[in-house]
Amino acid sequence: MRRFLWLASSFLLAMTMSCVKQPQRMYLEGFAQGSYYAITYYDEQGRNFQQGIDSIFHAVDLSVNLWVDSSVICKVNRNEEVELDQIFIDNFNIAQQAAELSGGYFDPTISPLVAAWGFSAKTSNLSSLTSHLIDSLKTLVDYRKVRIEDGKLIKDDPAMQLDFNAVAQGYTSDRIAAYLDSKGVKHYLVDTGGEIMAKGGKPDGKPWVVGIEKPAENMDDERVVQTRVPLFDKGLVTSGSTRKYVERDGKRYSHCIDPTTGYPVEHQVLSVTVLAENAVWADALASICMVMGMEKSLELIKTMEGVEAYYIFVNDKGELETFATNGFEILD
Description:
alpha+beta, T-fold, eight-stranded antiparallel beta sheet, two-stranded antiparallel ribbon, 33% helix
């Protein structure tokens, strides 16, 4: 009798386990915001969220994409009457907080300098770029001279222009993550052009694994992984200077422009990867670290709870070297 009960119990347990749905791995990829996106998530029902995610990309583009002429930010920069939506307000507030935190090494009013150095939708002739012009444009760069009042963007100087590129993609990853949260998805990895947000790990308990790219010699070089990072419930973003640059008189200039000088940075740091509570702050902090340089940015990072950083730089001997803060875990 006991043997029969044991066999019956084993049979019922096996039947129950076979009826439990295993989450299906879903993968969405494509092109948006001038770059790629790759989204992996596990869902018991195998639902396809492509339409909802596309709507997020579209909404962000219509609000803060400088390459979309009809976007809210483009209208603000042209001083047109426009109602500020929540996406614009969110990006503005985050950018202002980042500017305050960094003491101006991050500045959302940097757009005139970005355009002058040839890193925007507007064309620029670098041969005509002079120190006098840069000094003139610097007068338009000061986050303390813009604000939102009664739902409108107020500028102390109408010629000032905004640029949220250092936070917008991280913000997009977080918006997609929030959308997946709302659908009950418990395991996902959202990658919007390298701005990553992870929820949980994989269903088997293993972490998501993300590669950090080795700095390239040229912008079109093959991508090589420098190291790999295990990821649980965190945002991760890398900012670097080796793939985005312009050349003038045989010299390369990084897209990482220091608002305090008006010039691209020229220190030895090639890339910084930041781990933070969400993608938008990882995005902002990675940009801040690249502009500040290693010594100053490490002082800032060490004051922030839950934030870690991984630097790739050239040492005094001209050799590639890395440095990670204590809580930044790497796999190899």
